[in-house]
Amino acid sequence: MGADLRQLSELFSNHLKASEVEDGQHAVIQSPICSSASSSGSSIEVSVDYNGVVSALPSFPSTFTGLQLKSLAIATAGAGGGFQDYFLTLNALPFGARSRVSDHSGVVEGATLLRLVLEDVGDRRKAVGMT
């Protein structure tokens, strides 16, 4: 079974956690969305702008949801507080909290740079289910 999983991994150019295959029980296959090659072969850099300070995000899996990305952005920007204290947008549009980041309309094939914006919520209302 481990060999079949490795072949699938190579076929889809995904990363396979070999340590999880060695026990013969299961494997996690995830492909990165940033700091790696997209299907067009170009590298995608993702950064977050918080109060005018731009920070590069570390690599994360393409299976990340909007909420997971928001958590990473808050930590990377060194912002305090929780999810409810911030808006996270790309091209002025929020991410779906439980939707894959790659499903956002601002993530387009061939893009080499994604600039996220993290803003304090303040007195504004936030849509339920959105970042």
UniProtKB/TrEMBL annotation:
It comes from the Eukaryota. This is Uncharacterized protein.
